[in-house]
Structure formats: structure tokens, C-alpha cells
Amino acid sequence: MNSQQPRNITNELAKQRNRAAAERTLIGWIQNCLTLIGFGIAFERIFNAVNQTFARNDTALNARIAQIIGLGAIALGIFLLILAIISYIKDVQSISQPDYLYRPIHTSTVFVITAIVLFGLIAIVAIFTSTVLLSVARAVLLPA
User: Fold this and answer.
1) Do residues 44 and 66 make contact, with C-beta atoms less than 8 angstroms apart?
2) Beta-carbon contacts of residue 36 (< 8 Å; ≥ 6 apart)
3) CB–CB of 63/51 below 8 Å?
4) Within 13 Å of residue 78, how many CA atoms lie on the same side as its CB?
5) Residue-by-residue DSSP string for 100-128
6) Mean pLDDT computed over every residue of the chain
7) What angle do CA 50, 62, 70 make, to 5 degrees?
């Protein structure tokens, strides 16, 4: 009997579908991470262009906040891409095992969601804080 022949063709086809699903998931993660990285690059450039057009604000503080948010988005995109690649490798290795049994791993999903929510909250606080500080500084320095 040929040892190369699969034991059960149904199981092998299911493994192939799971492998293809893992590849589609990785491609989705790559698209999202590239979008996040592109947003980080564009955010700083757009913010700097707006500051040059409307130069009445504290441009140094605004430029620093824009740079931090932009670099944060780029770093988050790269980090999530690394996590996606690691997850893909683990999935493919798991599928390759002869005794493959699907075991959902939810910790990475929770971690990714938490990281994105925290990044958004930090960005909102940074932008709001700079706006409030500038308003207070104007009220104190330039009384009506």
C-alpha cells in the first residue's frame, strides 16, 4: 500500500479549505495593516499642511502630536502585521499535523482590539488636550 496516499480524502480537503481560509485571513490582515501604516503617514502630512494654512495655533505642539499619532499608527500597523504572520504560521503548522483539531485562539483577537481601542483613545485625548490647552493659553495671554 502507498504511504503517500491520504488516509481520508474528506479530511484532507477540509485541511486544504482551512489552509486557504488562513491565507485569506492573512491577506485581510495585510490590507488592514497597510491601510493603518498609510494612515499614519498621511495623518502627519495632512496635519502639517493644515497647520501651515492656518498658522494661528501653536504649530510646534500640533506638529508633535501629529507626529506621535502618525508614528503610533505606523508602529501599530507593523506590530499587527507581525502578529498576523505569526498567527498564520501557527495555523498552517497546526493544519499540517496528522491529528489536526481546530482550537480557537481568542487571546490575539482580544489583544488586537484592545490595542486599537487604546490607540484611538490616546489619539483623542492628545488632540483634545492640545486644543483645550491652546484655548486656555489664548484666553490667558490674549484677554478680550
Assistant:
1) yes
2) 73, 74, 76, 77, 80
3) yes
4) 8
5) -------HHHHHHHHHHHHHHHHHHHHHH
6) 77
7) 85
Helix, strand, or coil (residue 138): helix
What is the amino acid identity at position 108? S
For 18, the 3-state DSSP assignment is helix
Q: pLDDT tens for residues 96-124? A: 877 766 666 666 777 777 878 888 788 77
Q: Kindly state the cell numbers that stand for 119.
A: 490607540
Q: What percent of the chain has pLDDT over 90?
A: 3
CA distance 61 to 134: 9
Q: What pTM was computed for the model?
A: 0.66
Residue 92's H or E segment, with its range, is helix 59-96
Which residue's entry shows cell 499614519? Answer: 40
Q: Supply 104's cell numbers.
A: 480557537
C-alpha cell at 131: 486644543
